[in-house]
């Protein structure tokens, strides 16, 4: 399978920012309103949690933008951690994203999309998993084509998702009868957590901002485009999320949101715009989530590709295969989709997604500390994080806040996920030993031949 393995640099600023916004805005903002409110216990703290989650994400984005501008390669966090801390931690960062984080997030978004499509056509629950798998396969096939096709789909769905978002914001804020602030839910569950858990729930909705870094090797002028896309994209999403939350709380009382759970946004759409209008709004949300699914499926295979290029995964020679014309990592894309499908069928993707936020923030914090290391080593920077060192410190403290909150909220889940990450170590040593053995055999053959 010999070929010129080079990804094509064809993504510009608008494609990049569409991927950032399209990847972030998906199921979280529509499905996490009730869980954030349950943990926060009142509407003021719920709105604060969405803002706080956005500020943490923006500080993280500004910090990573400086690091990413100095390392504009395919692989994102996997590459950053390796260059900052060495091969073993770099491998674990990639392993975590490839085996757990990426497939679980894709499964979660695919699962939520399947639920909405089943509700849209009034189908029973038995259709949820087939529809979810169908959505993932559809997006996977799109990404078999030239990377411009996937990027164009991101642009279209990003524009399309703004229609239901604008409708919810405008109708909720201007026609809602409630005060968005000061509402308290009467039925507080003992296991609902606190403000830290509420922020953690918002971070699933903000998830995806760093995935654009996985496409660094496919961008035109990545040193300039990558920081711009990350910063502007996160700022836009933070504003949208705050306005959507205020709009929903203005239109639906906090107690009712808590009871409706994942059906909150569908209820608002139907009540505000009637059955037909509600259906159209739900269709817009489905398009939004397909765009998010596309963002995940277009980016995670690039981590697989980057790791396979280094022989860091089994069957690496196959996983590095690129289509001759479009230069798309087709085998890596199939690999991620298969893992996501297995997770969707066998596990609860919702809980997996929450724990994935904890797991990836462990590696985010390592990357945030890396900015201080790079500042000491390199004075030439294509992009400098503003308000340094305050912004990186906010990112680190925010990340520690999330990690500690989840440790107290779900210690068993934390141990499980850290265990899955640790399993990568023996695999890493096995692959390296196998690579060393093959190299020694090749040397021996050459010596005998001579």
TrEMBL record:
Listed InterPro entries: AA/rel_permease1, AminoAcid_Transporter
Transmembrane segments: 12-31, 43-67, 88-121, 127-145, 152-175, 195-217, 229-252, 272-293, 329-346, 352-374, 386-405, 411-431
Topological type in the membrane: Multi-pass membrane protein
One Gene Ontology molecular-function label: L-amino acid transmembrane transporter activity
Main localisation: membrane
GO cellular component: membrane
Signal peptide: none
Alphabetized UniProt keyword annotations: Membrane, Transmembrane, Transmembrane helix
Gene3D superfamilies: Amino acid/polyamine transporter I (1.20.1740.10)
Annotated compartments: Membrane
PANTHER family to which the protein is assigned, alphabetical: AMINO ACID TRANSPORTER, SOBREMESA, ISOFORM B
Protein's recorded name: Serine/threonine exchanger SteT
Organism: Lactobacillus johnsonii N6.2
